[in-house]
Amino acid sequence: MKIRLMAAAAALIAAGGFRGAAAETIYVTNEKDNTVTVVDGATLEVTKTIPVGQRPRGITLSKDSKRLFICASDDNEIQVFDIAKQEIVGTLPSGPDPEQFILAPAGNPLYIANEDDNMVTVVDVDTGEKVTEIPVGVEPEGMGISPDGKILVNTSETTNMAHFIDTETHEIVDNVLVDPRPRFAEFTADGKQLWVTSEIGGSVNVIDTATRKVIKKIGFEVQGLNAEAIQPVGVRVTRDGKLAFVAMGPANRVAVIDAQTFEVKDYLLVGQRVWQMAFNADESRLYTTNGNSNDISVIDVANLEVTKSITVGNQPWGVAVAP
Amino acid sequence: MGFKKLCAASLFVVSAFGVGGVATAQDTSADVATIPIAYITQRVKELPPFSLVDQPTTDNGLLGARLGVEDNNTTGKFTKQKFTLDEAVVPIGGDIVAAFRDLLAKGHKFIVADLPAAQLLAIADVPEAKDTLIFNVQAKDDALRGEQCRANVLHTMPNYAILADGLAQYLMWKRWANWFLVVGTGDDDKLFAAALRRAADRFSATIVEERVFDAAPGARRTDTGYALIQKQMPVFTQGVSDYDVLVVSDERDAFGEYLQYRSWDPRPVVGTQGLVPTAWHRSQEQWGATQMQNRFTKFAGRWMTDRDYSAWLAVRSISEATTRTNKTDYASVNAYIRGPEFGVAGFKGQKLTFRDWDGQLRQPILLAGPRTLVSVSPQEGFLHQFSELDTLGFDRPETTCKFKSAAQ
Q1: Angle CA(B73)–CA(B79)–CA(B81) in degrees, nearest 5?
Q2: Which of B74, B294, B345 faces A200 most closely, judged by CB atoms?
Q3: Among candidates B163, B140, B158, B170, which has minimal Cα distance to B245?
Q4: By C-alpha distance, which of B347, B296, B342, B351 is closest to B323?
Q5: What is the ipTM of this complex?
Q6: d(Cα B256, Cα B270) in Å, to the nearest integer?
Q7: pTM to 2 decimals?
Q8: Which residues in chain A have Cβ-Cβ distances shorter than 8 Å to B345?
Q9: Tens digits of per-residue pLDDT, B63-81?
Q10: Does B323 contact A200 at a Cβ distance shorter than 8 Å?
Q11: Is B78 close to A250, i.e. CB distance below 8 A?
Q12: Measured between alpha carbons, how far apart are the two ends of chain B, in Å?
């Protein structure tokens, strides 16, 4: 009995490292190199580097998981990458200087923030046509979409607002003032909250989506670290609404927050200038892009541990995980 | 409709709009508040740029203020606030104080002053200017932050001490501690040189020798002039005992550029030419600055200068105050800008705030080569108990500023 238990335990331990990771592939945009690095989720090694357009930043998976959309910011277009073929197969119009974007939960359309001309461009990914442009604040970047697809949120870095946009009428229905230089907007899976990071304010503003009021401002403090170094950018919340992770830029750490009490539980040291993050499909891992150390970090979510760093290209920006 | 749903009371006071405290033209829409901003400058006789590679800079400073107002109005669409810019560009020989008085008579309380030190003090000291907020976006004189500080003036342009300290920190980080200082004969050359001497003392550099270069600007090189310069510069710079770097103070851009590649000893040139400490540079693209550069270049048809940037920051500070307080009157805006909650985002990676002891905006300083950004100060390792930005320029314990108001 004991031996069987031990063997079973040993098998579990051996399998643990690969749980949920056997087939996943991680794609990282390298802003400076104009490439995408491909990392195998099982071995956590770089398998290839693919040349893409100029200044690639935002990257996102299509709903059917067959394609990746990549913002080629300096080419002023979205590139479409076919995962099976492992190559760029086409482009989509995007408006000037696309930085970040978000796909409607239905898989179409794509909402793109045009950093240079204060617009959000809406593009039909099937026809490749621009549907419309929505004027927003100065330097739009963060894009969030409600789980029912009805409300799109865009944050403007210099106007310091989260604009709530009705996706049917394409009209702004509300503007919520947030702390300075908001970078990222993320709805919780239940649609009840919107988490917005403030890079210069050093905080996260949690907005109640029903009342559209900021219900909580989360601040951060790391012993020995200058407050100015804490510059939150990316934020991700687990589907069960229990944990939130915030990439804190030049603080070189990811903050772990109890998403129910809003208390900061831990700070995980990753690489330098951590900006964006992506979960794998079962949320057992969180991958972070560390722009100034040219690597990505792998966080084991169950144990809240950083288990590995993998060198990618120059100035990694965005990350997407394909199953 | 949207504006009334803005953030919860715990963050800032939501109050009904007062109609702006100025009796100027109001917006037709009843619930939009108008915030007038004035800009004042005087034309000076401009020499052609030193080099064909430089851009001719028309409306320096003014275009920064104009873009600032446009950016404010983009935000203002959502907050129901409209900003206007009243431009007083006084011709050469014109009366600056009279023009300023005209602005005050119209009711202006927020003034962007793009003027040299003497004229800035002349307008700040006008008795009716007592309850106004004047932003100095041009003059770098250290005295304006010290013995000649004024209660109604805030400075967005960094002063000479901040620039010299920013440069000195980098030189010490490089361990280039022995300096050969070359100073021009212009007044501003001497002011910057004084700041460089203070910086050397502060950061333990040694000025091994100082020499004065006597050249008036405007004597531009003619055909084959390079041959003359090629011989003059080595002679001027020979015989200096062991030094690491040639520090030049030539604010008028008369001769400093000639030192590079021509000094007797092979040494990097830094200061007003070569590696330059500055508030802004066309090569700056960090912390989202690319977007600012793109927006400005598209708007102005030329690159953004440090004066444009300082004027832009001044105008943005006003909007930051009116947006966060929902108030547009002078007293509220002035109090908020000088208060602990205020911070303006200036594409330098951290929020920028005004020092309460002398009104100077604390900010990182760019160290720029001709084509690229080389570094940003404060340098790693220079520590401070309150803000590392206060390792640059005049810190609280050493200030000689005792705010005087126009009444004194």
Answers
A1: 50
A2: B345
A3: B170
A4: B342
A5: 0.77
A6: 9
A7: 0.85
A8: 157-158, 160, 180-181, 200
A9: 999 999 999 999 999 999 9
A10: no
A11: no
A12: 47
